[in-house]
């Protein structure tokens, strides 16, 4: 089936988030080092980003490096950081050609200086692009994000900048890294694992979850179109009954 031709482009998810999993297993299956799985994973990143821009998805967020990933062997962490720098250098043209704005969520201050500088540079150079926002979650952990959010709000309440009664969902949204992004509509995880792994816990409250066995380096835009097609054929009730919706 050609999923792209069967998509309803007026009902695309406003925000797609992806847990790109399976790089290590892809490499192991082929007898390669884990690093080559990550390298191959960058090809999937490019294809999926272009696929989103092609059909008009407005927001794509990729889980590129979690707070927990710092615990991986130093060599693997170094490889991932180097890949980030080389991909940013290489893909700035893809971002410009497709009018894509780069954004980042996570504790960027913990990234190596070179990676941080390159990232901020590309964010700055693409800041006026309007077709789509590509957000990279880097050194990101949802619990850390929520903890920081609570601390910031508590400080404002203490200094009487904010009253306790004024705290509502929108105030919380404004104090998260994702403050400028809509809620996630569709969350995809590759490689057959069915976990959230500390990713966007607040923002996925009503997201549709989609799991595929495909390993991330093998994932391409056609697979994404299939996931969106599947999403469009689900009934999102947001706590209501089916009858109320119709
Ligand atoms: C999970 O696979 C993947 C990661 C921890 C890193 C994702 C990074 C990339 C796709 C490449 C760089 C990305 C950008 C945006 C430049 P895993 O290593 O946990 O795989 P496994 O579970 O099979 O071991």
UniProtKB/TrEMBL annotation:
Cofactor note as given: Binds 2 magnesium ions per subunit.
Biological processes annotated in GO: polyprenol biosynthetic process
Protein keywords: Magnesium, Metal-binding, Transferase
Residue positions binding Mg(2+): 21, 208
Entry cofactors: Mg(2+)
Top class in the EC scheme: transferase
Active site: 21, 69 (proton acceptor)
GO molecular function: ditrans,polycis-polyprenyl diphosphate synthase [(2E,6E)-farnesyl diphosphate specific] activity; magnesium ion binding
SUPFAM superfamilies named among the record's database cross-references: Undecaprenyl diphosphate synthase
Entry EC no(s): 2.5.1.-
Stored InterPro entries: UPP_synth-like, UPP_synth-like_CS, UPP_synth-like_sf
Residues annotated for substrate binding in this entry: 22-26, 34, 38, 66-68, 70, 72, 189, 195-197
Annotated function: Catalyzes the condensation of isopentenyl diphosphate (IPP) with allylic pyrophosphates generating different type of terpenoids.
Family: Belongs to the UPP synthase family.
Subunit and interaction comment: Homodimer.
Protein name stated in the entry: Isoprenyl transferase
């Amino acid at each position: 089936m050609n999923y792209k031709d069967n998509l309803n482009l007026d009902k695309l998810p406003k925000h797609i988030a992806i847990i790109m999993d399976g790089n290590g297993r892809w490499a192991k299956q082929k007898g390669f080092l884990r690093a080559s799985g990550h390298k191959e994973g960058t090809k999937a990143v490019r294809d999926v980003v272009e696929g989103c821009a092609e059909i008009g998805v407005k927001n794509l967020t990729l889980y590129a490096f979690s707070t927990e990933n710092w615990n991986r062997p130093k060599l693997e962490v170094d490889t991932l950081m180097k890949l980030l720098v080389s991909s940013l250098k290489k893909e700035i043209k893809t971002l410009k050609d497709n009018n894509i704005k780069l954004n980042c969520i996570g504790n960027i201050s913990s990234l190596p200086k070179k990676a941080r500088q390159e990232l901020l540079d590309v964010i700055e150079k693409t800041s006026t692009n309007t077709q789509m926002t590509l957000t990279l979650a880097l050194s990101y952990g949802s619990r850390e994000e929520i903890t920081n959010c609570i601390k910031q709000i508590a400080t404002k309440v203490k200094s009487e900048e904010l009253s306790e009664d004024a705290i509502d969902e929108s105030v919380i949204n404004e104090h998260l890294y994702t403050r400028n992004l809509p809620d996630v509509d569709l969350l995809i995880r590759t490689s057959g694992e069915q976990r959230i792994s500390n990713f966007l816990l607040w923002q996925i409250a009503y997201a549709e979850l989609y799991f595929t066995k495909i390993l991330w380096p093998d994932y391409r835009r056609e697979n994404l179109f299939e996931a969106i097609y599947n999403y469009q054929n689900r009934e999102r009730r947001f706590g209501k009954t089916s009858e109320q919706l119709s």
